[in-house]
Design a protein that fits this description.
five-stranded antiparallel β-sheet, globular
Length: 320
């Protein structure tokens, strides 16, 4: 989004371009017996299928007794399968209703993740509320969210609303809806009131936090956490600076506490968190975005992490 007036435009990389991480904590799990296959039905966009279901992942999955089967989202799920797990990232009320009806009739199937929980992340007003409510603070640092304002209509009233809310310029401008599209990941910086009145609601205005151009991406796959650093000043994730000298990573205990709490509060097992550190501080962090089912394929060793995660779901059911 480019605006007239004093506006500096930048763009977050799309989820499919997210960077590879630095460390992996593998799970040691036994694959199902050769005669017992774990069937994972997937309902993904063609772009997501191409980036996620790469040959290396499917090959490793077959060795572990996991089979990926495409779901026809235009047909009742009950006529397909049977599935042990349903992996999905589609939007729309029709798909959500289709999946919920299927899950109600087949509660034994693991759905990754509940549609209602995913919907919570598609609105930037509700997306960060759990972080704000958490207000995590311990000896390793403090995690919060930038002050923000939701604008749903009438651009001419934005400058007055900003003044009443006590927000300071510049402000980060983001679309209110976070549906995974390229547009939903675009953002701008508004430096003056003239620019504010030219915005196109619905949108979120976040108070800018000087973070030195470094963004930390934290990936969650079940109980596994991986976190690389990414320079958001780069044109894309492929250009991002991943040199260890760029910035010190956030303390792992702090991130583990944050991820554990968010897993519980959000009711999700597949998501990532975008975190920044306030420039000039050592332990003041802000969560600025949460994305469902991000670009895991750019993570080093994602094939092992994901297949082990799928097997862990079966193991946990067997223990019940």
């Amino acid at each position: 989004m480019r605006l007239n007036g004093e506006v500096s435009c930048i763009r977050h990389e799309e989820e499919e371009q997210e960077e590879e991480a630095e460390e992996r904590v593998p799970l040691t799990l036994l694959a199902p017996p050769p005669s017992q296959k774990l069937v994972v039905g997937y309902a993904l966009t063609s772009k997501k299928v191409k980036s996620f279901l790469q040959p290396k992942l499917e090959g490793l999955a077959r060795k572990k007794g996991i089979i990926f089967v495409a779901i026809d989202h235009c047909q009742p799920l009950g006529n397909q399968g049977p599935f042990d797990i349903v992996l999905h990232k589609l939007t729309g009320k029709e798909w959500q209703q289709l999946l919920e009806d299927y899950w109600e009739k087949h509660p034994e199937v693991t759905v990754l993740d509940p549609p209602a929980a995913i919907k919570h992340l598609r609105n930037r007003q509700s997306m960060l509320q759990d972080v704000a409510d958490l207000n995590l603070s311990d000896c390793y640092g403090k995690v919060g969210i930038p002050r923000q304002l939701i604008i749903t209509k009438d651009p001419s009233s934005i400058p007055d609303a900003v003044n009443k809310a006590g927000l300071s310029l510049p402000l980060v401008v983001k679309p209110l809806v976070a549906d995974g599209s390229a547009k939903s990941h675009e953002l701008s910086l508004a430096y003056d009131e003239v620019s504010l009145s030219k915005l196109d609601p619905p949108l979120v205005l976040q108070e800018f936090v000087n973070h030195g151009g470094v963004l930390f991406k934290v990936y969650i796959v079940g109980e596994t956490i991986k976190f690389p650093r990414v320079s958001c000043a780069a044109a894309s994730a492929d250009d991002a600076e991943l040199d260890p000298g760029v910035a010190e990573l956030p303390p792992r205990p702090l991130l583990e506490n944050l991820c554990r709490e968010l897993r519980h509060r959000l009711g999700l097992r597949l998501f990532n968190i975008d975190i920044i550190r306030e420039h000039g501080t050592k332990g003041r962090f802000y969560v600025i975005d949460i994305n469902y089912f991000p670009g895991y394929s750019k993570m080093s060793g994602y094939e092992h992490i994901f297949t082990d995660f799928l097997l862990s779901l079966v193991q946990s059911k067997l223990k019940r």
